[in-house]
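Hi again,

Forgot to attach this to my earlier email, sorry! This is the prediction with nicotinamide-adenine-dinucleotide bound. I've pasted everything inline since the attachment limit keeps bouncing my files.
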Amino acid sequence: MASKMFLVTGGAGFIGSAVIRELILNTDYRVVNVDKLTYAGNLESLAPVESNERCYFEQVDICDAGEIKRVLNKYQPDYVMHLAAESHVDRSIDGPAEFINTNIMGTYTLLEFCRACWSGLKSVAPETPKGVDQYRDLIMFVADHSGHDQRYVISAAKIERELGWCPQESFDSGIRKTIH
Ligand SMILES: NC(=O)c1ccc[n+]([C@@H]2O[C@H](COP(=O)([O-])OP(=O)(O)OC[C@H]3O[C@@H](n4cnc5c(N)ncnc54)[C@H](O)[C@@H]3O)[C@@H](O)[C@H]2O)c1
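Structure tokens for the complex follow:
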């Protein structure tokens, strides 16, 4: 049986290329990379996997509904990882249209066609694994995190020291206003 197929958008970008390298080099999944190759796309980052027979490439704009439909029909992916984006935020000031097209309309286009494919599947519920009667049996309960996790605390000491900033609310007064 053929291995599962991943469709990765933006696979020539920083994050997408790392994902594809990982999938091809360390699993037996097949991967189709859907990338428009904007200034941010760089196929050289896929050099270690480009000749792999489980790795496919489609130069496609995710905003192009006809092309997205064709690619989904052709590869019938089991999983979609959407990593195509206009990601360099400083560019969004001079050229916001590309950001709106790719990040909003492109994402919407991709989601709509994925939903259409998903709705067309005979059964959308995966089979329960062997020895498991119902999915509820797989739920594993873990202890809650403590409410105030010190690892994520931001220190305001520098801004207080250098700019004289001070908060208008203490934790106690803020929480009282937040939770009624
Ligand atoms: N880089 C990070 O540290 C980081 C951290 C958190 C989240 N993210 C998010 O991960 C996603 C990918 O980030 P990245 O750093 O890999 O970005 P990137 O700019 O390096 O790559 C984006 C890729 O998308 C492609 N692309 C752009 N528009 C397209 C379109 N219309 N159709 C098809 N392909 C298109 C480009 O050619 C490029 O290969 C973004 O949503 C980003 O916000 C990135």
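Helices lie at 14-26, 65-75, 91-94, 96-120, 157-163, 171-178. The chain has a mean pLDDT of 91.

That should be everything now.

G.
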